[in-house]
Design brief:
Elements (H helix, E strand, L loop, with lengths): L12 E3 L2 E9 L3 E4 L4 E6 L2 E11 L4 E13 L5 E23 L2 E5 L4 E3 L13 E5 L14 E6 L5 E7 L6 E7 L9 E8 L6 E13 L3 H13 L24 E5 L12 H12 L7 E5 L21 H14 L3 E7 L2 E3 L5 H4 L31 E3 L5 H18 L3 E5 L12 H13 L6 E5 L11 E4 L14 E4 L33 E4 L3 H4 L1 H18 L7
Parallel strand pairs: 16-17, 16-25, 17-18, 18-21, 21-22, 22-23, 23-24
Antiparallel strand pairs: 1-2, 2-3, 2-7, 3-5, 4-5, 5-6, 6-7, 7-14, 7-15, 8-9, 8-11, 10-13, 11-12, 12-15, 13-14, 19-20
Helix pairs in contact: 2-3, 5-6
């Protein structure tokens, strides 16, 4: 983050003990309020701010525009802020700044830990912390699953809680820093930024309410937000027990097998025959109906083949894949091949049919290009062939659905795994989140018993997908089990040598996860895992039986 090299001289207004300032961001500049054109009133316990002119360049200039704010204390003694604005240029975001705060730290409610605010990534960046909802590809550790945020008073220990009452997935940024100039130099400031969907940008904007609670209990405050999210006014979360948007057989799954196929380089971990051997071994010790077999790299060179899916000749070809699918079905095991929801190799011969009009891009139309593993070990990380597609684009979505549906009709597998569904950007042509919803709906329209699973989650995605592969180093709160189930990420090690299979991480320590309702026991297989790690495989099978006994009360493990 950066700061301006001059004092913005933003007017400050006191609202129920909070000192606030406003920024309005268009696609071409940053605006504040003109104090001489601003009226503050208190009527019936509601504070209103009405501004009929905007300012810019540290109050040196004036611009046509309007801003209004209303704030009141609700029946929980929280402050509710409602804001709207008008400008000559299209408005992308409004920032509410809470200033002159006492010394604070950021509070992680999921871990109960404090996070310092004075962090700087380089000599040309200002000290402070930015947290993102729903996703920022460059800030894994600062992504929020919910638009909920806490600050902890370092002296009293009291928590200040904030959330946005939004019914759509729209960008929120929570920024904490010490001011570097002006009246409040050295004081902490909290910035609450709501960004409008780029597909809807206009010269007028009205943003969802910000709810600010003082001296809150983090768990109660979060649950209050989740109750809103479950309501008709929220994003549409549905409790696991009440969901009807996935096949019933998922409720009987107690074990996931991550069976790796072919690495990006062409290295073969498991052929289709090897995969079948693994499935046979496991299904002899656990009923097939409890097993979900996830197949990353089934289509050939991992990621390189994205965008043009078919059985890989070097893994056994069409006949080998048909045998795998047919035999797994006979054993009652549910197969789930992996597909890229928003990635395609632009060198594929079919790319021109769907790609050029489907690139993911930012609000300013910068092409979205991240996630550049060192696939070839050249240390250059230059994967220009790896193009991000927007599932909201009809051309890409139609083509992906066509390929998956044709394969499903031919081979009769039971599920599909969609890679990278959590990647989000404020695309000006098509909503990324709604594109994911449409993709899932298009896949299941004529195949209602098809399970559709995603990688990683944020709150909105919990309303679309019932099962997620989750990264082990990002804390997974138990409350996610209210709405969905999770399984181990494919980057997690298999037990024989710590290999991460097709994933670019390479090697890591193997660790068996403890039993918990929201997490379905998972074990990975590369070449040699079945032969060299049978003891650990059998231990995980025991955990799978325990999962059935503990969480499927009407079932008995066999």
């Amino acid at each position: 983050m950066q700061n301006y090299s001059f004092d913005m001289k933003d007017p400050v207004y006191e609202i129920f003990g909070l000192k606030v300032s406003i920024h309005i961001h268009t696609m071409e500049n940053t605006y504040s309020l003109s104090p001489e054109k601003t009226i503050v009133e208190l009527n019936n316990q509601t504070i209103t701010i009405a501004c009929s002119q905007l300012s810019w360049a540290g109050q040196q200039q004036r611009a046509n525009g309007k801003f209004s704010l209303s704030a009141f204390r609700n029946d929980r003694d929280q402050i509710e802020f409602q804001m709207s604005a008008e400008a000559e240029q299209k408005i992308i975001s409004i920032k509410l700044m809470i200033r002159d705060l006492p010394p604070v730290s950021i509070y992680d409610a999921d871990t109960g830990s404090d996070i310092p605010i004075n962090v700087s990534e380089s000599l040309v960046q200002a000290s402070g912390q930015i947290f993102y909802y729903p996703y920022n590809a460059f800030k894994y550790n600062n992504n929020l699953k919910l638009p909920v945020f806490f600050l902890k008073n370092r002296e009293s220990g009291n928590l200040l809680g904030v959330y946005s009452q939004d019914h759509k997935v729209r960008a929120k940024r929570f920024v904490v820093s010490e001011e570097v100039q002006g009246e409040y130099k050295g004081k902490c400031c909290l910035e609450l930024i709501h960004e409008e969907l780029a597909v809807n940008l206009d010269t007028k904007i009205s943003i969802p309410k910000w709810i600010i609670g003082e001296q809150v209990n983090s768990e109660s405050f979060r649950d209050e937000y989740l109750a809103f999210s479950e309501s008709e006014k929220g994003i549409g979360l549905t409790r696991w027990e009440e969901r009807n948007d996935f096949p019933d057989w998922l409720r009987e799954i107690s074990l996931v097998l991550n069976i790796h196929g072919m690495h990006w380089s062409g290295y073969i971990f498991n052929t289709y025959e090897n995969m079948l051997e693994i499935i046979r071994y496991v299904s002899e010790r656990l009923e097939g109906r409890h097993i979900l077999a996830y197949l990353p790299g089934w289509e050939g060179r991992y990621y390189w083949q994205y965008g043009q899916y078919r059985p890989e000749p070097l893994l056994g070809g069409k006949e080998g894949f048909q045998k795998l699918c047919s035999e797994a079905k006979r054993l009652g095991v549910h197969l789930m091949p992996m597909f890229g929801s928003n990635i395609a190799n632009l060198r594929m011969e079919n790319f021109q049919e769907f790609g050029p009009n489907s690139f993911m891009k930012t609000a300013a139309r910068t092409r979205y290009h991240v996630n550049e593993p060192d696939w070839d070990l050249s240390r250059g990380h230059d994967n220009g062939w790896q193009a991000f597609m927007n599932a909201g684009s009809p051309a890409w979505r139609k083509e992906l659905v066509r390929q998956i549906t044709n394969l499903k009709d031919t081979y009769q597998f039971d599920g599909v795994f969609l890679d990278l569904v959590h990647h989000w950007v404020n695309d000006p042509d098509h909503e990324v989140f709604e594109g994911m919803r449409s993709l899932k709906n298009d896949l299941t329209k004529n195949n209602p018993d098809l399970l559709v699973v995603g990688e990683n989650w944020y709150e909105g995605l919990l309303s679309i997908f019932p099962l997620f592969q989750v990264r082990p180093y990002i804390n997974q709160p138990a409350w996610v089990g209210r709405y969905a189930r999770t399984m181990a990420h494919l980057l997690e090690a298999e037990p024989s040598r710590g290999s991460t299979g097709v994933h670019e991480k390479g090697y890591t320590n193997y660790e068996r996860k403890p039993l918990s309702k929201e997490y379905i026991p998972t074990i990975a297989f590369v070449d040699g895992t079945l032969e060299k790690a049978k003891k650990e495989i059998d231990e995980v099978l025991k955990v799978s039986h325990q999962y059935i006994d503990k969480y499927f009360p009407s079932k008995q493990s066999v």
